[in-house]
Specification:
7 strands, binds nicotinamide-adenine-dinucleotide
Amino acid sequence: MGNNLLKGKKGIIFGALNDMSIAWKVAERCVEEGAIVTLSNTPLAIRMGTTEELAQKLNAKLIPADATNVEDLEKVVDESMEFFGGKFDFVLHSIGMSPNVRKKRPYDNLDYGLLNQTLDISAISFHKILQICKAKDAINDWGSVIALSYGAAQRTMFGYNDMADAKAMLESIARSFGYIYGREKHVRINTISQSPTVTTAGSGIKGFDSLVDFSERMSPLGNATAEECADYCVVMFSDLTKKVTMQNLYHDGGYSSMGMSFRAMEQYIKSFDDLTDEQGNIIYG
Ligand SMILES: NC(=O)c1ccc[n+]([C@@H]2O[C@H](COP(=O)([O-])OP(=O)(O)OC[C@H]3O[C@@H](n4cnc5c(N)ncnc54)[C@H](O)[C@@H]3O)[C@@H](O)[C@H]2O)c1
């Protein structure tokens, strides 16, 4: 049940692949709250995934685009404005992919051509979207733009690889562009740093199940789900958060502020049990 938080608002949602995608949940929640949306994803993702089904369900226009391609993105903005009959109010960037992770290249043996692709797809595409929207003056005053990030931008996480660098860049773009777009057009730009969430992109990370389990146990409120992330996006797109900009907003059940929990400490101590001799003396390796 919606509360009309986005009544009369219009927005573009990038990155809904299937019903596990965070962008899928965001699109559903935005429409439930009274918004009209357009959707975009790559032609390949549209063929392989179920984005068309979502577009039908939400009466949304689906516009294929590779987010690294400026002409494609210009088309998304132009066709969205045509569909909306004018400017729009919000944008979700929910795009991430690392060809190095896909090809199992470890961080100390990266392919630099693939690193460029990781950064282009996962971070620079955000700048491209913002630059095009600003040049076309496509976003209404007091509009809101969100990109999805992850805590590996600040703290090293096993297996996250070059995506950590992409997320650090993504968050920096939100600050740098947030200054300019805020000053000139009152458009706010933020990143939401989401808990590990079981989706197609998430599951590509090495040791992902253990990561989900660890952060679930470490967070006082538990991991934030994709549905809860959608709720947070709705609030950030609404008029209730007009002065929040250039922030990286943690949506992780408290995980990012934790150092050591009681349960984790107990588990850590237990792990040394078998490292004592019969007299209970610690065996140093
Ligand atoms: N799943 C998690 O654990 C988690 C946690 C924090 C942040 N995030 C971020 O959330 C966002 C959405 O990911 P998700 O977990 O919903 O997975 P997902 O696989 O459903 O979404 C990723 C999307 O990126 C799209 N994409 C890839 N290359 C593209 C390109 N060149 N042009 C346009 N789109 C392209 C894919 O088609 C897909 O729709 C990503 O930025 C991801 O890094 C995910």
